[in-house]
Amino acid sequence: QTAPLTLIVSAFAPVADVRASLTPQLRTDHGDTRLLLIDLGNGRNRLGGSALAQVYGAVGEYPPDLDDPQQLKHAFIQVQRLNAAGKVLAYHDRSDGGLFAALCEMAFAGHCGIDIVLDVLGEDPLAALFSEELGMLLQVRAADAEFIRVQLADGGLDVADLGAPSAKDRLVFHYKGRELYAAPRGQLHQLWAETSYRMAALRDDPECAKEEFESVGAADDPGLSVHLSFAVPPPASRLSPPGASRPRVAILREQGVNGHIEMAYAFHAAGFESVDVHMSDILEGRITLDGFSGLVACGGFSYGDVLGAGQGWAKSVLFNARAREQFQTFLARPDRFALGVCNGCQMFAALKEIVPGAAHWPAFRRNRVEQFEARWTMVEVTPSRSLFFAGMAGSKLPVAVAHGEGRPEFAAAGDLGALRGGSQLALRFVDNHGAVAARYPQNPNGAAEGITGLCNEDGRITILMPHPERSVAGTVGSWWPQQWTDKTPWFQLFVNARQWVRDHA
After folding, report:
1. Among residues 104, 342, 345, 455, which one is catalytic?
2. Any catalytic annotation for residue 74?
3. Collapsing DSSP states into helix, strand and coil, what is residue 97?
4. SS3 content of the chain, % helix, strand, coil (to 5)
5. 403 vs 19, 300, 375, 381, 445, CA distance in Å?
6. I need a surface site. Which of 92, 169, 212, 314 has the fewest CB within 10 A?
């Protein structure tokens, strides 16, 4: 018999509350903290098969192993209990790269330095730093550290207090009273990212890859933030009490669209009745748009984007008499609104000949980076006529983006100026300092002036490349302030739509 070269084992488990997830980001907002290592290798520090061995062209004799499965189970249970009690601030595993890599990655994520003492990890600091034995790194409050260490040790776990985060923005490792190694965090972060940069420079647009690499580890990068010009909306339960009238909104999708569920949820939470409408329903006359207050074209990959992102979808409207009449009549009504997001944005832009007040809208072309972009990035709401952004101008906050063709391309030289003069520019990418984003990845598609959202002349019809509907729940997204566990500020966009319908009833 011949054994397979590779065995991949996948496992799944339910997550009771995603808000309790732990990340490697060192927290600097909880006062004095300590870094504890639960050493499931029990001091063996075997180097066989490690990254260090590979660097020196060696294999090694003894690889890391799980000698006691019950110990791993016990450690997992104890960490879960500590997390449930709010005692763990950050977490990282040791086994992928070793202790040095894990501590560096925690410092990179936390944008801070660390001060580590290796004396408690044996007589070979090199093995302690680069052995890829199983282990769990925990950041805990200094006031809790000794109690947690003793509690875990009493349960048979080998636990070491390694040190603490540092405000000096340097990674420093001590051994037996001397400085074993030290380097600026930014310098190590650049080294850590360089391999990915070299690969991206070959695969993607090289200038975009360079711009991203140059920003890695910058000491003055404040990171993501939220600056609002309005109050966060109340919980959804207060907006639509039982028995309240719900205007109908058509959640429009086409083959390949995948953002309709989040969109339906966001509008429903704001007090609408979300109705699933497939393009085939309109093309074949099963559904008309007459009874809807709003029409929303959702994001995804219509026709797999093989016909051009959103282009095939638009053509199915323009070249079908029934669909064209339905859309044209609906969009012309002053008491109706429309929203296009991502693929829906591209589709509406390609329909601009039947969209009132959209003559200067751009088409959306391939991202400058030449790749599909899926990331969490900062945007600014700019003053505009868009009903969706009423009262939100000046706000800066993160949002989800996911598109391959989001770069606006204008047909005439004066189009951008006309849109600016008509207050039709609603949203733009900004960097972490709040300035208009001109470089990648803060500007993920190469948009001129960071433009990523527009509206028509009277503000009833808005098109956006980012995904606010994927960003309304406080339990989704790469980062949100923890107080927003119900709805994020993006929910205001959908609340504004509900208020506009009330005002135009």
Report:
1. 342
2. no
3. coil
4. 35, 20, 45
5. 27, 8, 9, 20, 9
6. 169
Instruction: Report pLDDT digits (tens) over 346-399.
Output: 999 999 999 999 999 999 999 999 999 999 999 999 999 999 999 999 999 999
- Dihedral angle computed from the Cα positions of residues 240, 286, 310 and 453, in that order, rounded to the nearest 10 degrees: -30
DSSP state of 465: S
CB 461 within 8 A of CB 455: yes
DSSP 368-418: TTSS-EEEEEEEEEPP-S-GGGTT-TT-EEEEEEEES--EEE-SSTTHHHH
User: What is the 3-class SS of 288-355, one letter each residue?
Assistant: CCCCCCEEEECCECHHHHCCCCCHHHHHHHHCCHHHHHHHHHHHHCCCCEEEEECHHHHHHHHCHHHC
The answer to whether 185 and 113 have CB atoms below 8 angstroms apart is yes
**Cβ atoms 409, 363 nearer than 8 A:** yes
User: DSSP character for 100?
Assistant: H
Q: Note if 455 is an active site residue.
A: no
- Read off the pLDDT of residues 198-228 as tens digits, 9 standing for 90 and up: 999 999 999 999 999 999 999 999 999 999 9
Q: Whole-angstrom Cα distance, residue 101 to residue 392? A: 42
User: Is 419 in a helix, a strand, or coil?
Assistant: helix
β-pair type (451-455, 425-429): antiparallel
342 is catalytic: yes
Are the beta carbons of 425 and 419 closer than 8 angstroms? yes
Residue 66 to residues 46, 373, 433, 442, Cα–Cα distance (Å): 11, 39, 46, 42
The residues, any chain, with a CB within 8 Å of residue 129's CB and separated by 6 or more, are 98, 99, 100, 118, 173
List, in sequence order, every residue forming a beta bridge with 249; answer none if it has no partner. 274, 294
What's the predicted TM-score (pTM) here? 0.91
What is the number of other CB atoms lying within 10 angstroms of the CB of residue 280? 13
Distance of alpha carbon 292 from alpha carbon 369, whole angstroms: 39
- Record the tokens describing residue 438, joined without a space: 């001109």
Q: In 3-state terms, what secondary structure has residue 436?
A: strand
Q: Residue 285's pLDDT is what?
A: 95
